[in-house]
Specification:
By secondary structure, this protein is α/β, with parallel strands linked by helices. About 50% of the residues lie in helices and about 10% in strands.
Length: about 350
């Protein structure tokens, strides 16, 4: 193998690199015309996720355009609750919805842990296909949603962002809610280990809604289940935790034993680095909105992020959240080129 495919893994392990590696959250997505064409062939987003050949195709599309240092499995964080029988639908312009949301602790108590090689076989089959196509040239990232984030969708029934129902349950039935997130932690651990067994080189846990919690609630219902996942992963697997809005809790996140932390755009990387020391690598954290700006501004902001980290080992360049559908792919190319232009 050449040096380039290893940059991402070396950075996660805080080992010396020639350049900062870069990949993008949602790098396979609607900003690419080739993705939109494949999705049209699939008919809808869920068909795209559940057809391994198409999931493989869209996973590889951004790598054909840009010299990215990692691929990320094309899937969705809600595959696990869907496999638990909640009946996921994903409609354009509407967002995710569950036909059978959780409405009481008794419903949650009836849930079981899906078998990844039967209930989620389309995911592990996609991993195997992608790994075969990558031929060892680029590392592949697997992922899952955090237990807290999954619980918000499962209880709210979709992407309702006032979190009224889930917080009513959290505060009104704390023992039952803790049992739910622990069950989800075990399900996510089994799921990620199946992805690892199928061939992914690293895994990431997306805690999209952790930032809406109080510190006490975050530590009990989001961080503790994520630590349970980290501790249950196949030994030696590099892993990244990302809590959107989680800048207050970087030290606690680093203490979970994870390999790396994703930082959203509200976090100064230099400050984050001082706070976590050498415990973890850091990933991030360009504001995705900057990719709408002219190329010179993008290059200036890329330099700002790299300067904030300060050089040396342990940085993976990424966005502070996922790329949005309105971004010009040429701007992404300019961003990637600017990152790789800086030698370490």
């Amino acid at each position: 193998m050449s040096d380039t495919p290893h940059r991402f893994i070396r950075a996660l392990r805080r080992e010396r690199n020639d350049r900062t590696p870069v990949w993008l959250m949602r790098q396979a997505g609607r900003y690419l015309p080739e993705y939109r064409a494949t999705r049209e062939r699939a008919g809808n987003f869920l068909n795209l996720c559940k057809t391994p050949e198409l999931a493989c195709e869209v996973t590889l599309q951004p790598l054909a355009r840009f010299p990215l240092d990692a691929a990320i499995l094309f899937s969705d964080i809600l595959t696990v609750p869907d496999a638990m029988g909640l009946g996921l639908t994903l409609d354009e312009g509407v967002g995710p919805r569950f036909t059978h949301p959780l409405r009481d602790p008794a419903a949650a108590a009836r849930l079981g842990i899906p078998d990844p090689e039967t209930d989620l076989r389309y995911v592990t089959d996609a991993v195997r296909l992608i790994k075969r196509e990558l031929q060892g040239k680029t590392p592949l990232i697997g992922f899952a949603g955090s237990p807290w984030t999954l619980a918000t969708y499962m209880i709210e029934g979709g992407g309702h962002h006032d979190f009224k129902l889930v917080k009513n349950w959290l505060y009104g039935e704390p023992a039952a809610f803790e049992a739910l997130v622990n069950l989800l932690a075990d399900a996510v651990t089994v799921y990620l280990n199946a992805q690892i067994a199928a061939g992914v080189d690293a895994v990431m846990v997306f805690d999209t809604w952790g930032g809406v919690l109080t510190t006490d609630a975050y530590e009990r219902y989001s961080l503790a289940p994520m630590q349970r996942i980290v501790q249950g992963l196949s030994p030696g697997t590099p892993n990244i935790l990302f809590t959107k809005g989680g800048g207050l809790w970087l030290e606690s996140m680093a203490a979970t034993g994870c390999t790396g932390l994703g930082c959203d755009w509200s976090v100064d990387l230099g400050n984050a680095r001082r706070r976590v020391g050498d415990l973890v690598a850091l990933q991030g954290n360009l504001d995705p909105a900057i990719l709408r700006a002219p190329v010179p501004v993008i290059e200036q902001e890329v330099d700002r992020v790299l300067d904030a980290f300060g050089g040396g080992a342990g940085h993976i360049f990424n966005l502070g959240h996922g790329i949005t559908p309105d971004i010009n792919p040429e701007h992404v190319a300019a961003m990637v080129a600017r990152v790789h232009a800086r030698q370490l």
